[in-house]
Every structure is written in structure tokens, then in C-alpha cells.
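W.,

You were right to be curious about this one. When I first looked at the sequence I had no strong expectations either way, so I just let the prediction run and decided to look at it fresh. Below is the sequence, 269 residues in total, followed by the output.
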Amino acid sequence: MSADDRRQEESSFRSSPTGPRVAPPGEFARQPQPAVPLHPATRRRFLGSILIFLLLVSGVGIRAYRDISRPEAWDYWKDQYFSPSLSSSVIVKADLGGGRALAVSGHIGPAAASWFHDRLNEAHLSPGDIVLLSSPGGNVDQALIMGETIRSRGLFTAVGVADDSGRIRPSYCASACVLVFAGGQTRYGVEGSALGIHRFTNRTPVSDPVANTQRVAGMLLGYLTRMGVSSSVVEAMSQTSEIRWLGTQQAQAMNLITNLITDPARNRP
């Protein structure tokens, strides 16, 4: 069909000699269909579902905001993901026995146990390998979990720092760090290193301080007893609010140190 024929056919639909314009066949398909109104009961159920969804979302959002708006929550997330308070390095061949070691240093923060668990997995330590500690202390609850983790993996502990060659140098482990140290299956005492203990206090206000102190003392006593440490450590802790540095003989008498190392380099195979 030529172009002139098509134009003529289309024009025959646009006008009619006997009546109004007649639309071509394609235009009928484009006519909008009338909307079918929802039944009132169906509309109510639909609106009710939307309302319930909005209430649930708002409730979860409010609870989440309350959780993350607490100072301790922010401290946890910061310590876990943004700026951990602890740092670590793997020593392939340490002075103490020549095995692998994970050197951990810094403050024990609110997410230290989770961080420590991840670093242990990355270090691939085996039973008998060493966790080398250098810390002023920090969060008691996190320290207890770290100590339990060390014991469950059959790892040893020591206080000190290491250079790139793996040579151990003296350092210190105080307050909550001592609880981490106590988790070692064997606990090396490096000559020149120091262990510091003191009375633990709760910085968060509690309704009954006396009962809370007794609870903490009982928790520490139970933990240290499981680790094979003398109860005299808890007694010594309760006697002072300031750091008390234990001598080597004192720490050995409390069974806090189980193996004394006078010169770590001599233990290299």
C-alpha cells in the first residue's frame, strides 16, 4: 500500500460525512480503564498493615537509637572497629622456647576480648605458644574473657615486649592485665618484668556498693582458683587501692608465676 493510500485510509477514520470523528482501531486500546474501588474492609486491612509496619519500624529504630546513644555502646564500637586500644604483633620465633608468640600491648578496652579472639585466630598459635603481655590494665570483664580464652587454647603467658628479632625485653602488666596473665597454662616470669595488683573498683554507680564489691571479689576468687593461682592474690588486691608491684618471689609464692626465666635468650633452642 502506497503512502498516499495509507493517508487516505487514516483520514477516513478521522472524519465521517455523516457524524462525529471516528477513532482508528488503535486508539481504543489506549483508552484508560476505570479504577475498581477497594472494598471498605479491604481498604481498612491495607491501611492497618501499613500502620503496624510503621509502628514496628519506629519501635526498632527507637530501641536501636537508645542502645547506640549510650556512652558505653559508643566506646565498644570505637574499640571494636575504629581505634582498638590494644595492638599486637606476631613473633615467629620468640626467645621463650623458640615457639610462636603474639605480643599484645596497650589498654584493655570494652571490646578487647573480641579483638583478642580475632588476633589469636590470625596468629595461628598452637598449644604451648606464648601470649606476651604489656599493659597497664583496663576492663576487668574483658580481661577475664581473654584469660579464659588463653587457657582454653593451652597457651602460655609472659610479661614483656619483643624486638624484630624475637628477643624479649622486660615490661609490666598491671591491674586487669594480671587477670589475662593468669590465664596462661604456664606463666613465665621474665627477669626485670613486673606484675602490679590493686583493689578493683566499679566506676559505674550501683545501688549497693558493698554487695557489688563482694560480688567482684567472689568472681575474681573463683576465676583465679580455676587458673591455679593462690587466693592470697585476691587478699593482696583488697589491701590497697594503689598499684602494688609484686616481687618475683612473692608472685611465685602466690603461684602467679610458675616458671622463672632469668635470661630469655638461654631458652632459645
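Here's what jumped out at me. Residues 72 and 110 are 8 Å apart (CA to CA). And, maybe more interesting for your project: The chain is about 45% helix and 15% strand.

Coffee later to discuss?

I.
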